[in-house]
Design brief:
17% strand, alpha/beta, 11 strands, eleven-stranded mixed beta sheet, 333 residues, Isopropylmalate Dehydrogenase
Length: 333
């Protein structure tokens, strides 16, 4: 049997509210779960060298600087060339790593990825994509924060990139693409939505406008919108999921009879919790770059870090970056 090609992911050991402990624990879990995964652990020598010494397939890349959450992203990237975020992106640019993950400053990670790794030829705006749970298979939502203001042609590119990610990361063949709007008719919504609809007509997989209620219903596999709207949708769905699970748990604990029912329902409730938990995917890729860049929540848990590395390895092995470049070239042609 042919062994799987080793996939190398550079990991920012210093990024996140619970770094470096949560990052190190997540990396250890990912390495144990995937024998074809290799990690370049980037950060303070004291942190990364000790960890790498005790873990196979992990190499330490020592740096002397850290970009803090409160720093101005672009200024920090320019002024801290030996920071864990900038060096991690440089490893991708130089071909030493296939991808980069950070749970540190989102703005700095995006800036470094765009400036250091660079964009695929023809990409106007890289977009952050996230995976959302639905009644059926998960769906891809983009953009969720990289571009608060967009032009119609940006949304058209998002659709192409999102479809490529749905195929590579989720294994969805022939993904259905929907444009987020306030109605199904082509003439509904803002001028941006109407103009984007016109550009998307004829795009393989495009099924038209979808409304907010269609996302959890799983009506489409890829939902396209601007970064401002996408971020609001993402935060609303995450907050609502946590609220409903907490309310449901409270109801089950409210009486002795309900507690008995809770014991019976425990396996099903655990599966539901896992399905709604954003940590199951761990990070959101910044699509449109000449390499894979994964952006995690600042509050990433060890499980989220491990999930991010798993998803990143899957995307690399599926040739995500090349697929996006090919799809965009086909559209341009």
């Amino acid at each position: 049997m042919t062994s799987m090609i080793v996939t190398t992911i550079a990991v920012d050991a210093m990024g996140g509210d619970f770094a470096p402990e949560a990052v190190l624990e997540g990396v250890a879990s990912a390495l144990a779960a995937d024998p074809s995964l290799r990690v370049l652990l980037v950060g303070s020598a004291q942190v990364v060298e000790a960890f790498a010494a005790g873990h196979e397939r992990c190499e330490a890349v020592a740096t002397t600087q850290v970009i803090e959450m409160a720093e101005h992203p672009a200024a920090a990237v320019r002024g801290k060339s030996d920071s864990s975020i900038v060096v991690g992106c440089r490893l991708v640019k130089e071909g030493r790593a296939d991808g980069f993950f950070s749970a540190g400053s989102t703005g700095a990670a995006m800036a470094a990825a765009a400036l250091v790794i660079g964009r695929i030829k023809g990409v106007q705006r890289p977009a952050i994509a996230t995976v959302l749970p639905t009644a059926g298979a998960p769906c891809v939502l983009l953009d969720v924060g990289a571009n608060a203001d967009c032009k119609p042609e940006h949304l058209a590119q998002f659709a192409t990139m999102g479809a490529a990610y749905a195929v590579a990361a989720l294994g969805i063949h022939g993904p259905r693409i929907g444009l987020l709007n306030i109605g199904e008719e082509p003439t509904k919504g803002s001028q941006l939505a109407q103009d984007a609809y016109a550009l998307l007509e004829g795009t393989p997989g495009f099924v038209g406008n979808v409304e907010g209620r269609d996302i959890p219903a799983g009506t489409v596999d890829v939902v396209v919108t601007d970064g401002f709207t996408g971020n609001v949708v993402l935060k609303l769905m995450e907050g609502m999921s946590k609220h409903l699970l907490a309310e449901f748990k409270g109801a089950l604990m409210s009486s002795p009879v309900n507690k008995v029912a809770a014991v019976v329902l425990k396996p099903s409730l655990g599966a539901l919790r896992d399905k709604l938990d954003p940590d199951s995917h761990g990070a959101a890729p910044l699509l449109g770059l000449n390499g894979l860049a994964l952006i995690g929540h600042g509050s990433s848990s060890p499980r989220a870090v491990a999930s991010a590395l798993r998803v990143g390895a899957v995307a690399v092995r599926a040739g995500l970056v090349g697929s996006i470049a090919t799809a965009l070239a086909r559209v341009d042609a």
